[in-house]
Amino acid sequence: MMYGYGQFGFLWMMLFWVGVVLLAIWAINGRNDSQGKAKADNRALAILEERFARGEIDGDELQTRRQQLGG
Prior knowledge:
Layout: H1 9-54, H2 59-69
Helix pairs in contact: 1-2
């Protein structure tokens, strides 16, 4: 009894589930990468602003580095 799957039914079922798992892994990694990059960018800006507040860098350098960081 093959239940309509034919000779390669088991193979197609396995390929389907492998595809679902790979898609889930891809989606999870893509989301983590984008969130991690955003957090790293925010942290870099926070450090830059802390250095400005402590007087380690001046306003011109702050603006230049903000532009380099894209913020």
